[in-house]
Amino acid sequence: MFSNLLFGTTRTFVGQRHALIAPDGHVVSTLPGVTGGTTVVLISPVMGAGFTELTVTFNQDGRAEFPDSQIEAFAYVLEGAVTAQAKGERKTLSAGQFLFVPAVTPWSLTEPVPGTRVHIFLKRYVALPGVPEPGILFGREQDIAGQPFLGDESARLQVLLPDGLSYDLAVNIFNYQAGAHLPFVETHIMEHGLLMLAGTGVYRLEDNWYPVTAGDCIWMAPYCRQWFVAMGKTPARYLYYKDVNRLSV
Ligand code: UGY
Ligand code: MN
Q1: What is the pLDDT at residue 3?
Q2: pTM of the model
Q3: For an engineered disulfide with 80, which of 3, 113, 208, 229 has Cβ 3.0 to 4.6 Å away?
Q4: Ligand 1 and 174: CB distance under 6 A
Q5: Which of 141, 157, 176 is where one domain is finished?
């Protein structure tokens, strides 16, 4: 007999306008350019998204080479350490450190500590006439203070990229004390890709309420109604992507 009463079930849901991808269903893909590692593509244009979100887990001697293209990248180290290089700039990144690489810039991840996991957002850059394109940026979330979200001290936002028209994406970390929540059900033109980093809670996506926990990934299409409450006894936090600064009217 099966000992697991949840046999044959999953929390994963993939719909037209939102998705919850729970880790139990992950299947690896081969991403050209990645050797000595495995890739799980969590969100991609094939499901209707305007960007790609994936996690690469490296073995010893693993490497990932990304050629120059119109695609910009944001890479965030979840665990371990790896050397990141973009053009002539090179840095060893460990957990909480990140790299933004603008479009048309080749970049790579090499010399990983075995087991290193890197979470990556990829987006086709949309230039704005007269506005310079952003440059390569290395950063550490540990250096970025969380600001109260709309005045709420128990829900704090760390904004990882500079706020400026050069950028057509934002990546933030949202930190919630247990019991804290988004102040209202958001409805907005911006799309999100989200990875739960820690804690548990309930995510409302349109008219569904999902229990979520660390490791879960969520896609929210533009105008997907969204709300979150952190639950349990420890804080919850998530890393998320948002397209910004390019309103088409
Ligand atoms: O930036 C945001 O739109 C954020 N408040 N959304 C979210 O956390 N679902
Ligand atoms: Mn939002």
Answers
A1: 56
A2: 0.97
A3: 113
A4: yes
A5: 141
